[in-house]
Amino acid sequence: MRSLIYVNIVGKNSNNEFMYEFYFSDEAEMAWGIDWDSKPASICNISVPEKMEYDKIKVLKTDIPLNVAQKNSCFSMQDCKDGIIPIAWENLDLAEEYPENGRFVFPFNTSLNDVEMSLALRDLAFENE
Fold first, then answer.
1. I need a surface site. Which of 33, 39, 96, 103 has the fewest CB within 10 A?
2. Within a domain: residue 63?
């Protein structure tokens, strides 16, 4: 089953949308990257996993800001694999109210189908390939 192993912030596009790459692997339990065991992740300049670690990348364009584990100042990427923090979660700092269909939270090893279903609840989908 293809599962989430990493979310990369690409930046903002010309439409002022956030762009994210979601990395999926058929062997999520085996996924590993350079410095994933270092704490905190934010000081390690963690980069995207090597090609052999993932099978598919899906791109999301949205006006919803996400926090990502590799920018976290308390935990490591290993902590994501251990279920302590998610790979990515919705940033609610500027939200006026809690999202009606719930906050986005994407734990490590979440199936591609479950990620797509969560996005669909907010009328979002990955870009066509």
1. 96
2. yes
